[in-house]
Amino acid sequence: MQFVHINGAAMHYDVLHVEGGRPAIVFINSLGTDARVWHHVLPKLEGDFTLVTYDTRGHGLSDRGETPYSIELLARDLAGLIDHLELREVVLVGLSVGGLIAQALYTLRPELVRGMVLSNTGTKIGTADSWQSRISAVEQGGIGSILDAIMERWFTTPFREPGNAAYAGFCNMLVRQDAQGYTGTCAAIRDADFTQAAGKIAVPVLCIAGAKDGSTPPELVKSMADLIAGARFEVIEDAAHIPCVEAPAVHAALIRGFVEQLDEE
Protein backbone atom coordinates (compact mmCIF):
# COMPACT_ATOMS: atom_id res chain seq x y z
CA MET A 1 0.00 0.00 0.00
CA GLN A 2 1.21 3.47 -0.87
CA PHE A 3 -0.19 6.90 -0.08
CA VAL A 4 0.24 10.43 -1.43
CA HIS A 5 -1.44 13.77 -0.72
CA ILE A 6 -3.27 15.08 -3.78
CA ASN A 7 -5.54 18.13 -3.78
CA GLY A 8 -5.61 18.16 0.00
CA ALA A 9 -6.54 14.48 0.42
CA ALA A 10 -4.46 11.40 1.20
CA MET A 11 -4.92 8.94 -1.66
CA HIS A 12 -4.26 5.21 -1.46
CA TYR A 13 -2.69 3.53 -4.50
CA ASP A 14 -0.64 0.52 -5.59
CA VAL A 15 1.68 0.01 -8.55
CA LEU A 16 2.91 -3.19 -10.18
CA HIS A 17 5.86 -2.06 -12.29
CA VAL A 18 7.03 -3.64 -15.52
CA GLU A 19 9.97 -2.23 -17.46
CA GLY A 20 9.43 -1.56 -21.13
CA GLY A 21 7.68 0.66 -23.58
CA ARG A 22 4.10 -0.51 -23.08
CA PRO A 23 1.69 2.06 -21.70
CA ALA A 24 0.76 1.78 -18.04
CA ILE A 25 -2.83 0.75 -17.30
CA VAL A 26 -4.62 2.79 -14.63
CA PHE A 27 -7.78 1.29 -13.11
CA ILE A 28 -10.56 3.50 -11.72
CA ASN A 29 -13.07 1.91 -9.35
CA SER A 30 -16.85 2.27 -9.40
CA LEU A 31 -19.18 3.91 -6.88
CA GLY A 32 -19.26 1.99 -3.61
CA THR A 33 -16.19 -0.15 -4.38
CA ASP A 34 -12.45 0.42 -4.13
CA ALA A 35 -9.24 -0.86 -5.70
CA ARG A 36 -10.02 -4.40 -4.53
CA VAL A 37 -12.70 -4.66 -7.21
CA TRP A 38 -9.86 -5.37 -9.70
CA HIS A 39 -8.43 -8.24 -7.62
CA HIS A 40 -9.24 -11.01 -10.13
CA VAL A 41 -8.32 -9.00 -13.23
CA LEU A 42 -4.82 -7.90 -12.22
CA PRO A 43 -3.20 -11.38 -12.11
CA LYS A 44 -4.28 -11.93 -15.71
CA LEU A 45 -2.32 -8.84 -16.78
CA GLU A 46 0.49 -8.80 -14.22
CA GLY A 47 4.00 -9.21 -15.60
CA ASP A 48 3.18 -7.78 -19.01
CA PHE A 49 2.06 -4.26 -18.11
CA THR A 50 2.60 -1.66 -15.42
CA LEU A 51 -0.65 -1.70 -13.46
CA VAL A 52 -1.90 1.12 -11.23
CA THR A 53 -4.89 0.85 -8.90
CA TYR A 54 -6.14 3.43 -6.43
CA ASP A 55 -9.11 4.28 -4.25
CA THR A 56 -11.05 7.27 -5.51
CA ARG A 57 -11.69 10.08 -3.05
CA GLY A 58 -14.10 9.05 -0.30
CA HIS A 59 -13.64 5.33 -1.03
CA GLY A 60 -11.45 2.62 0.45
CA LEU A 61 -8.42 4.00 2.26
CA SER A 62 -8.41 7.40 0.53
CA ASP A 63 -9.52 10.50 2.42
CA ARG A 64 -13.06 11.72 2.14
CA GLY A 65 -12.20 15.42 1.98
CA GLU A 66 -14.95 17.96 1.56
CA THR A 67 -18.18 16.80 -0.05
CA PRO A 68 -20.02 16.87 -2.39
CA TYR A 69 -17.58 16.22 -5.23
CA SER A 70 -17.50 17.03 -8.92
CA ILE A 71 -16.27 14.66 -11.61
CA GLU A 72 -13.69 17.30 -12.49
CA LEU A 73 -12.27 17.16 -8.94
CA LEU A 74 -12.07 13.38 -9.11
CA ALA A 75 -10.31 13.69 -12.48
CA ARG A 76 -7.84 16.20 -11.03
CA ASP A 77 -7.10 13.68 -8.26
CA LEU A 78 -6.28 11.09 -10.91
CA ALA A 79 -4.16 13.55 -12.88
CA GLY A 80 -2.23 14.32 -9.69
CA LEU A 81 -1.57 10.63 -9.12
CA ILE A 82 -0.39 10.11 -12.70
CA ASP A 83 1.89 13.14 -12.38
CA HIS A 84 3.21 11.85 -9.04
CA LEU A 85 4.09 8.53 -10.68
CA GLU A 86 5.69 10.38 -13.63
CA LEU A 87 3.57 8.48 -16.13
CA ARG A 88 2.43 9.66 -19.55
CA GLU A 89 0.15 8.27 -22.23
CA VAL A 90 -1.57 5.80 -19.92
CA VAL A 91 -4.50 3.53 -20.72
CA LEU A 92 -7.43 4.34 -18.45
CA VAL A 93 -9.78 1.53 -17.43
CA GLY A 94 -12.80 3.15 -15.80
CA LEU A 95 -15.72 1.21 -14.33
CA SER A 96 -19.06 3.05 -14.06
CA VAL A 97 -18.23 6.40 -12.40
CA GLY A 98 -14.63 5.47 -13.18
CA GLY A 99 -15.56 5.81 -16.85
CA LEU A 100 -16.89 9.31 -16.22
CA ILE A 101 -13.65 10.18 -14.42
CA ALA A 102 -11.68 8.85 -17.40
CA GLN A 103 -13.67 11.03 -19.80
CA ALA A 104 -13.17 14.04 -17.54
CA LEU A 105 -9.42 13.43 -17.35
CA TYR A 106 -9.21 13.25 -21.12
CA THR A 107 -11.05 16.58 -21.33
CA LEU A 108 -8.73 18.21 -18.76
CA ARG A 109 -5.38 16.59 -19.63
CA PRO A 110 -5.55 14.77 -22.97
CA GLU A 111 -1.76 14.47 -23.14
CA LEU A 112 -1.89 11.95 -20.30
CA VAL A 113 -4.15 9.50 -22.14
CA ARG A 114 -3.10 6.93 -24.76
CA GLY A 115 -6.44 5.12 -24.81
CA MET A 116 -9.52 4.36 -22.70
CA VAL A 117 -11.50 1.29 -21.72
CA LEU A 118 -14.90 2.62 -20.66
CA SER A 119 -16.63 -0.24 -18.88
CA ASN A 120 -20.27 -0.24 -17.79
CA THR A 121 -20.59 3.50 -18.08
CA GLY A 122 -21.95 6.24 -20.32
CA THR A 123 -21.50 9.89 -21.17
CA LYS A 124 -24.29 10.54 -18.65
CA ILE A 125 -25.58 8.05 -16.10
CA GLY A 126 -29.09 8.29 -14.66
CA THR A 127 -31.08 11.45 -14.03
CA ALA A 128 -30.72 14.26 -11.54
CA ASP A 129 -33.88 13.07 -9.78
CA SER A 130 -32.71 9.47 -9.51
CA TRP A 131 -29.38 10.47 -7.98
CA GLN A 132 -31.00 12.94 -5.62
CA SER A 133 -33.38 10.21 -4.48
CA ARG A 134 -30.45 7.90 -3.78
CA ILE A 135 -28.61 10.61 -1.85
CA SER A 136 -31.71 11.22 0.26
CA ALA A 137 -32.19 7.51 0.91
CA VAL A 138 -28.61 7.12 2.16
CA GLU A 139 -28.82 10.25 4.28
CA GLN A 140 -32.02 9.01 5.89
CA GLY A 141 -31.43 5.28 6.19
CA GLY A 142 -27.74 4.64 5.57
CA ILE A 143 -26.20 2.64 2.74
CA GLY A 144 -27.71 -0.57 4.10
CA SER A 145 -31.16 0.72 3.17
CA ILE A 146 -30.29 0.54 -0.55
CA LEU A 147 -28.16 -2.63 -0.44
CA ASP A 148 -30.59 -5.06 -2.08
CA ALA A 149 -31.51 -2.67 -4.89
CA ILE A 150 -27.86 -1.94 -5.67
CA MET A 151 -26.83 -5.58 -5.62
CA GLU A 152 -29.56 -6.43 -8.12
CA ARG A 153 -27.90 -3.97 -10.50
CA TRP A 154 -24.33 -4.99 -9.74
CA PHE A 155 -24.61 -8.77 -10.07
CA THR A 156 -26.60 -11.44 -11.87
CA THR A 157 -29.04 -13.69 -10.01
CA PRO A 158 -26.67 -16.72 -9.89
CA PHE A 159 -23.91 -14.61 -8.31
CA ARG A 160 -26.32 -13.35 -5.65
CA GLU A 161 -26.91 -16.82 -4.25
CA PRO A 162 -26.78 -16.73 -0.40
CA GLY A 163 -24.08 -19.39 -0.39
CA ASN A 164 -21.69 -17.31 -2.49
CA ALA A 165 -19.10 -15.94 -0.06
CA ALA A 166 -17.86 -13.48 -2.68
CA TYR A 167 -21.32 -11.97 -2.89
CA ALA A 168 -21.37 -11.53 0.89
CA GLY A 169 -17.98 -9.84 0.65
CA PHE A 170 -19.14 -7.31 -1.90
CA CYS A 171 -22.22 -6.57 0.20
CA ASN A 172 -19.82 -5.85 3.05
CA MET A 173 -17.72 -3.61 0.81
CA LEU A 174 -20.75 -1.49 -0.03
CA VAL A 175 -22.30 -1.15 3.43
CA ARG A 176 -18.92 -0.37 5.01
CA GLN A 177 -18.34 2.42 2.50
CA ASP A 178 -18.15 5.94 3.98
CA ALA A 179 -21.67 7.33 3.54
CA GLN A 180 -20.55 10.89 2.86
CA GLY A 181 -17.96 9.73 0.35
CA TYR A 182 -20.70 7.71 -1.32
CA THR A 183 -23.26 10.52 -1.50
CA GLY A 184 -20.54 12.99 -2.48
CA THR A 185 -19.74 10.78 -5.47
CA CYS A 186 -23.45 10.37 -6.26
CA ALA A 187 -23.61 14.17 -6.56
CA ALA A 188 -20.65 14.14 -8.95
CA ILE A 189 -22.38 11.57 -11.17
CA ARG A 190 -25.64 13.52 -11.00
CA ASP A 191 -23.99 16.64 -12.39
CA ALA A 192 -21.74 15.00 -15.01
CA ASP A 193 -22.58 15.00 -18.72
CA PHE A 194 -19.96 14.25 -21.39
CA THR A 195 -22.39 13.82 -24.27
CA GLN A 196 -21.00 16.82 -26.15
CA ALA A 197 -17.39 16.06 -25.25
CA ALA A 198 -17.54 12.46 -26.52
CA GLY A 199 -17.32 13.53 -30.14
CA LYS A 200 -13.98 15.22 -29.44
CA ILE A 201 -12.24 12.10 -28.13
CA ALA A 202 -9.34 11.39 -30.44
CA VAL A 203 -7.72 8.34 -28.82
CA PRO A 204 -8.70 4.68 -29.21
CA VAL A 205 -11.61 3.66 -26.98
CA LEU A 206 -13.10 0.30 -26.05
CA CYS A 207 -16.61 0.39 -24.58
CA ILE A 208 -17.68 -2.67 -22.55
CA ALA A 209 -21.18 -3.55 -21.35
CA GLY A 210 -22.58 -6.30 -19.18
CA ALA A 211 -25.50 -8.03 -20.87
CA LYS A 212 -27.50 -8.02 -17.62
CA ASP A 213 -26.35 -4.67 -16.25
CA GLY A 214 -29.17 -2.92 -14.39
CA SER A 215 -27.25 0.33 -13.87
CA THR A 216 -25.73 1.05 -17.29
CA PRO A 217 -27.46 -1.36 -19.70
CA PRO A 218 -25.86 -2.29 -23.03
CA GLU A 219 -27.96 0.22 -24.99
CA LEU A 220 -26.59 3.07 -22.85
CA VAL A 221 -23.00 1.93 -23.35
CA LYS A 222 -23.64 1.48 -27.08
CA SER A 223 -25.02 5.02 -27.35
CA MET A 224 -21.76 6.28 -25.86
CA ALA A 225 -19.68 4.20 -28.26
CA ASP A 226 -21.66 5.60 -31.19
CA LEU A 227 -20.61 9.13 -30.21
CA ILE A 228 -16.88 8.32 -30.14
CA ALA A 229 -15.14 8.06 -33.49
CA GLY A 230 -13.78 4.55 -34.06
CA ALA A 231 -14.83 3.22 -30.65
CA ARG A 232 -15.22 -0.55 -30.25
CA PHE A 233 -18.24 -1.95 -28.42
CA GLU A 234 -18.24 -5.32 -26.66
CA VAL A 235 -20.86 -7.06 -24.51
CA ILE A 236 -19.92 -9.55 -21.79
CA GLU A 237 -22.60 -12.19 -21.45
CA ASP A 238 -23.64 -13.52 -18.03
CA ALA A 239 -22.38 -10.38 -16.30
CA ALA A 240 -24.10 -7.34 -14.86
CA HIS A 241 -22.56 -4.04 -13.69
CA ILE A 242 -19.29 -5.39 -12.27
CA PRO A 243 -17.86 -7.77 -14.91
CA CYS A 244 -14.37 -7.55 -13.44
CA VAL A 245 -15.83 -9.61 -10.56
CA GLU A 246 -18.32 -11.87 -12.37
CA ALA A 247 -16.30 -12.44 -15.56
CA PRO A 248 -12.70 -11.41 -14.79
CA ALA A 249 -11.10 -13.62 -17.45
CA VAL A 250 -13.26 -12.16 -20.21
CA HIS A 251 -12.86 -8.62 -18.90
CA ALA A 252 -9.08 -8.96 -18.65
CA ALA A 253 -8.85 -10.50 -22.13
CA LEU A 254 -10.70 -7.54 -23.63
CA ILE A 255 -8.39 -5.11 -21.84
CA ARG A 256 -5.29 -7.06 -22.91
CA GLY A 257 -6.38 -7.21 -26.54
CA PHE A 258 -7.10 -3.49 -26.58
CA VAL A 259 -3.72 -2.53 -25.09
CA GLU A 260 -1.81 -4.94 -27.29
CA GLN A 261 -3.48 -3.43 -30.34
CA LEU A 262 -2.25 -0.02 -29.16
CA ASP A 263 1.27 -1.45 -29.11
CA GLU A 264 0.93 -2.26 -32.82
CA GLU A 265 -0.17 1.21 -33.87
Structural features, described:
It contains 10 helices and 8 strands. It has one domain (2-264): Alpha/Beta hydrolase fold, catalytic domain (Rossmann fold), CATH 3.40.50. Strand 1 and strand 2 (9-16) form a beta hairpin. The termini are far apart. It has helices at residues 71-84, 97-108, 128-141, 147-154, 165-175, 179-191, 195-198, 218-227, 243-246, 248-264, and strands spanning 2-6, 9-16, 25-28, 51-54, 90-95, 113-119, 205-210, 232-236. It is of the alpha/beta class. The mean pLDDT is 96. Helix 1 (71-84) packs across helix 2 and helix 3 packs antiparallel against helix 6 (179-191). Strands 1-2-4-3-5-6-7-8 form an 8-stranded mixed sheet, with helices on both faces. Helices cover 40% and strands 17% of the residues.
List the topology elements.
Layout: E1 2-6, E2 9-16, E3 25-28, E4 51-54, H1 71-84, E5 90-95, H2 97-108, E6 113-119, H3 128-141, H4 147-154, H5 165-175, H6 179-191, H7 195-198, E7 205-210, H8 218-227, E8 232-236, H9 243-246, H10 248-264
CATH homologous superfamily name? Alpha/Beta hydrolase fold, catalytic domain
Major sheet characteristics? 8 strands, mixed
Determine the mean pLDDT: 96
CATH level-two architecture: 3-Layer(aba) Sandwich
Examine the coordinates and then state which fold CATH places here, giving the name of the CATH topology: Rossmann fold
Largest beta sheet: strand ordering: 1-2-4-3-5-6-7-8
Q: What would the principal axes of the Cα set say about the shape?
A: globular
Low-confidence stretches: none
Report strand %: 15-25%
